Every structure is written in C-alpha cells, then in structure tokens.
User: Which sequence fits this backbone?
C-alpha cells in the first residue's frame, strides 16, 4: 500500500476554496430562488430537465440520470412537486410498469417566471466578477474534471 498523496498548499487552497464557493453559491442561489419564485433549487433543476425534453415528459429513470439523483431522492421530491401541481405522473401505454413524469401547465408557468430572475442571480453572483478568459478556464476545468469522473 502506498502513502497517501496529500494535497500541497496550493492544491489545498484550491480545493477548500472550491468547496466553500460551491456550498455558499448553492445556498445563495437557493435562497434567492425561493424568495423570487417559491421554488427550491431542486424544484428548478427538475423543471429545467423536463423543459429540455421535447414534450415536457420523461421516464423517472431518464429524469434521475438528467439531474444525477438517486431514484429514491427523486421519487420523494417528485411526490412533493406533484402535490404542488408542478408535475404529474402519467402512465406509459407501452409499458404498464413504467410511468412518465410530465410538466404541468402550472409547472411550465413556474419555470418561465423563475428563470429570468434566477439567471440574473447566477450572472451577478458568478459571471459578472469574471473576465472572458476566466469563464473559459472555468468551463475547461469543469470539462476536464467531469471527463475524469465520468457519469454515475
């Protein structure tokens, strides 16, 4: 067994900075989204995934892959969203065991109203403080890390 490859000071600063930034940014975005629209960041993520598919509906498995959540977490969250009228479950005619999650008209209205202030919050918190090269570097770093860890 080899010794751990500890992070050096520079790597430690980058890693801890990333963790702090990610946590605080998520909390900030969630607070603002809740205040502006009554949606949580999790609600928004599900609604975005449904608006990204042509007919506004997807199988639970496909939705779980799109949002990168475990099926149990997604199932509980979908139940809460369904009670609020944002989504509905629809039976699949081809597969009696399967079901679709579909965006309701209320869900579509909610995402359409929430998106403009949310993107302004993202822009203000993240991108307004970066120049074009820094945005490109951030995108490149994200692509490299995501490529190394792959999907699920």
Assistant:
């Amino acid at each position: 067994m080899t010794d751990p490859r500890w992070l050096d000071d520079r790597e430690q600063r980058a890693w801890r900075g990333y963790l702090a930034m990610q946590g605080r940014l998520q909390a900030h975005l969630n607070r603002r989204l809740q205040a502006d629209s009554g949606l949580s960041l999790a609600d928004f993520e599900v609604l975005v995934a449904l608006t990204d598919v042509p007919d506004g509906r997807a199988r639970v498995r496909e939705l779980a892959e799109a949002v990168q959540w475990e099926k149990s977490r997604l199932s509980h969250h979908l139940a809460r969203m369904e009670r609020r009228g944002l989504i509905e479950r629809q039976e699949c005619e081809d597969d009696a065991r399967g079901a679709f999650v579909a965006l309701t008209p209320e869900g579509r209205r909610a995402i359409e109203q929430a998106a403009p202030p949310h993107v302004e919050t993202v822009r203000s918190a993240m991108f307004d403080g970066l120049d074009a090269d820094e945005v490109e570097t951030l995108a490149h770093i994200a692509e490299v890390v995501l490529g190394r860890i792959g999907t699920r």
The chain has a mean pLDDT of 93.
